[in-house]
Amino acid sequence: MCNGNSMENLHYSRHEFDLLEPPKAPRIRLRHATIADLASARDFAQSELPGNIAAGAVLEMAIAHNPDNLLVFARNDQIAGIWAMLMLDPMGVEQLLLGEFNTIDPEFQYLTPDGRTPVAIYMWAVVAPGMAAEGIRHVSRFLRQPRYVRANFFSRPNTDVGVKLNYSLGLRPIQSQTPGLFRYVRLANRAAQLSQAA
């Protein structure tokens, strides 16, 4: 999958992903994708994103490996958006930085299974058109749970809107063998770096 978005409800500046909070009266509900969701979620992503989308069998393996890999934004029991990610182990991060990580058909030996703490998180696909942008705020809270709070994000946006979304959430381009790779350093890691420098 590729990263992209149709953001309308997030401005493209002054957002820090780790500080986003859901509204007091949410219109979107965040939940794990189920096997029954995969066909409609894949069709939804294909309608919003350019390029190739991971096959249904790959998505099924991804949620079997770790249910947190695929979250959906639901409104009135309908899928309104998607946040797909891959939980990377140290070798997965190395493969990504070397330009050898297959994002369409990932090797699960490089991914962290359910219940384990990943080294980093690859933002596989983000689709949040219109009011579904609220779902990103729910994901921010979800990814501040202890096992994820220090996992930096990586992303490779392939649309102008996706690039703007990355910048708006605090991701920045980095030098690597994967062209167009962005990274977000989690606030917990920045605080640790400051304390070590003091």
Strand content: 15-25%
Mean pLDDT: 89
The CATH superfamily bears the name Gcn5-related N-acetyltransferase (GNAT)
Helix content: 25-40%
Q: Would you give the CATH topology?
A: Aminopeptidase
C-alpha-based Rg, rounded: 16 Å
Biggest beta sheet summary: 7 strands, mixed
CATH class type: Alpha Beta
Order of helices and strands: EHHEEHEHEHEEH
Structural class: alpha+beta
Enumerate the strands of the largest sheet in spatial order, edge to edge or round the barrel: 1-2-3-4-5-7-6
- Number of helical segments? 6
Briefly say what this structure is.
29% of the residues lie in helices and 19% in strands.
3D structure, described in words:
It is a single chain. The protein has 198 residues and is an alpha+beta fold. It has one domain: Aminopeptidase (3-Layer(aba) Sandwich), CATH 3.40.630. It is built from six helices and seven strands. A seven-stranded mixed β-sheet has the order 1-2-3-4-5-7-6, with helices on both faces.
